[in-house]
Design brief:
Shape: elongated
CATH topology: Pyruvate Kinase, Chain: A, domain 1
Order of helices and strands: HEHEHHEEH
Strand order of the largest sheet: 2-1-3-4
Number of strands: 4
Strand content: 5-15%
Structural class: alpha/beta
Radius of gyration: 28 Å
């Protein structure tokens, strides 16, 4: 009986220690939610504006000559995989890796510590990935695409839907897709549409990449907050069950001691 009480006491102490950790991580995630969401919204606006310009340009027949719109018979894929910098975020990282595994034989560029640990290479933290980092990577990828180093470029990231819902998905950015020609264009491009398109593509890739990173970071923070709230709730329920078992075991031990004393006094 005494051994059971000791085991329960150790277990209760362990669960309380874990609960303190989950509460702390939940508070940290809560403090980052507003900042990460603001950064996500700003990057969405920038990416959307550049994407609208790209769509307007790709609808022009002259732009079909752009090397960024070419399609090859081969299908050599390069994937930028954006995962988290830490764990304890529910299925956030697992869902990203599962989505990436749906595209076999792709050449992976990881962003986020967990992605870098899985796929190797230099560690790039998603939380501190800046527009300058995105622009440098974009310029390099554009050069490789023009030089036929790969045929298709995609970004695996996590789309923020709501505080409770995030979805891992792939955004394909190269080659550019031709959009329907609406006949009229509100903008006039100088010196010509093809030149502007070729110049703006690196900005488009960088804008798309930084938007995906910021969206993934916001998703990670939200997923961690939800996961820590769930872990805290589970720990509280476990503590209640353990405390009940501990009190019963302690009461049983006391009853046994009293019974032994009474039995001994009667002899």
């Amino acid at each position: 009986m005494g051994a059971d009480i000791k085991k329960l006491r150790v277990r209760i102490k362990s669960v309380r220690s874990t609960q303190h950790l989950t509460k702390a991580m939940g508070l940290v995630a809560s403090s980052k939610i507003k900042k990460s969401n603001n950064a996500m919204m700003k990057s969405r606006e920038y990416s959307s504006a550049v994407s609208e310009t790209i769509q307007s340009l790709t609808s022009c027949r002259e732009c079909e000559k752009s090397p960024y719109m070419k399609r090859n018979d081969t299908d050599r894929i390069k994937l930028i995989v954006i995962a988290g910098d830490r764990g304890l975020a529910g299925g956030y990282n697992v869902n990203v890796f599962r989505k990436a595994s749906e595209i076999p034989d792709a050449d992976i560029i990881p962003i986020g510590k967990r992605a870098c640990d899985k796929f190797g290479g230099k560690t790039l933290l998603a939380e501190f990935f800046s527009y300058d980092d995105a622009k440098k990577l974009s310029v390099l990828l554009c050069e490789e695409f023009i030089n036929n180093k790969f045929d298709k470029l995609g970004i695996v990231y996590t789309k923020y839907i709501s505080m409770m819902s995030q979805e891992a998905m792939v955004k394909w950015v190269l080659p550019l897709e031709k959009t329907a020609d609406k006949g009229t264009h509100s903008a006039i491009f100088e010196p010509d549409e093809l030149t502007v398109l070729n110049e703006i593509v690196p900005e488009y890739i960088a804008g798309s990449l930084i938007a995906c990173v910021k969206e993934s970071v916001a998703s990670e923070v939200s997923a961690r907050r939800v996961a820590m709230d769930a872990a805290d709730k589970n720990a509280q329920e476990m503590l209640s069950d353990l405390s009940l078992a501990y009190n019963r075991a302690r009461q049983g031990a006391i009853t046994q001691e009293i019974t032994e004393i009474v039995a001994g006094s009667g002899q």
